[in-house]
Amino acid sequence: IERKRLKKIAEWSDKCYGISQLMCDEYSKIFNKKFSLLFKGCEIRKPKNTFNTPVRFVYAGNLLFNRSKSLIALANAIHVVNEGSHKAVLEIFSGTNVSDDVRSALNIEGSSHLNPAKPFSEIKEIMHEADVVLHVESFDKDQMEVVRLSFSTKITDCMQSGSTMMAIGPRGLASIEYPKNSIPGAIVVDSTDRLVDVVKNIVESPQQLIERSHSMNEFAKKIAEIDVVRNRLRTDFVELIKNKL
Hints:
The protein is of the alpha/beta class. It has 11 helices and 8 strands.
């Protein structure tokens, strides 16, 4: 019933949007109608010009779809890199209920902390003060199929923060392929086996985060700045109205 309803809605619509390029490409074939890419607009913060000691990794969001497993892998990688010193820390803010085992795995003294959710206004400041802001997906095959075409709004939140984004997840997902192929300055890790080397590279050369954040910021201002998105929507609506007259 939902499939038939969605097909009718697409047929009746004068303009269709998708939140990821993979979604637009696949839906255009399924519905035999063009789908255009549309991001969530946001207010872009200034890029970072300094870095913290220790380097701060921040994830703010839900732990559904087994995202916790990817964060546990990152927490363990940071713990390995931290051996003998305090070089990096992972801060997680989430309102998702987790098991005691997951909570224990995400709370590693000196390396990672699981914190309660905070209001988005506070999260924006925390992400702006971070060095690396995270988008993560699960490597579980069942979960990959569920989120394959989705595009997490966390990517837009990361772009607006002014910090460097790191995406962790398997190849073939829209939310991993996009930062990998389109967002300059983004760090993409498509295998948990690489996490120790990636974290080590960051803490040994943290100045790269400043360069990366500036590259991301310039890109974000072009495609996700709220005024840019609003103007594009207005232009689309005006064109649609003209075509109806």
